[in-house]
Amino acid sequence: MPTKTQAFAQLAEHTAEKLTSSLANWTGFLATVGRLYKYPYHEQLMIYAQRPDATACADYELWNSKMNRYVRRGSTGIALLDPTGDTPKLK
């Protein structure tokens, strides 16, 4: 059974392959990227794979302290892969 990191890495690979398979998938990805343009490609890909309708993404602390918004109890986060270092890990 794959670990969480391996499962999300497979999700990223599958999503990248799916993007090039049809024009509708590609335009959907571009719509997501248009809203989240400050993130690098690999993070945009993970956001699109897990929540294509996302309009804003930030760390939990950033939502609370700088944006004066509060995350609802029971909300699910978006997992991002951190490629720095020897092995990838989840952010």
In short:
This protein is mainly α. The chain has helices at 4-19, 23-35, 41-50, 60-65, and strands spanning 81-82, 89-90.
Could you explain how this protein is built, in words?
The chain has 91 residues and is mainly alpha-helical. It has one domain (4-90). It is built from four helices and two strands; from the N terminus they run H-H-H-H-E-E. It has helices spanning 4-19, 23-35, 41-50, 60-65; strands spanning 81-82, 89-90. Strands 1-2 form a two-stranded antiparallel sheet. Helix 1 packs across helix 3 (41-50). It starts with a helix and ends with a strand. The model has no long low-confidence stretch (mean pLDDT 87).
Question: How many domains comprise the coordinates?
Answer: 1
Number of strands: 2
Note the total helix count: 4
What is the terminal separation in angstroms? 21 Å
Q: Rg to the nearest angstrom?
A: 14 Å
- pLDDT averaged residue by residue: 87
Kindly report the spatial arrangement of strands forming the biggest sheet.
1-2
Largest sheet: 2 strands, antiparallel
Helix content: 40-55%
Order of helical and strand elements: HHHHEE
Q: Which segments are poorly predicted (pLDDT under 50) over 5 or more consecutive residues? A: none
Which secondary-structure class do the elements indicate? mainly alpha
The best one-word shape is globular
Please report which band the strand proportion falls in: under 5%, 5-15%, 15-25%, 25-35%, 35-45% or over 45%.
under 5%
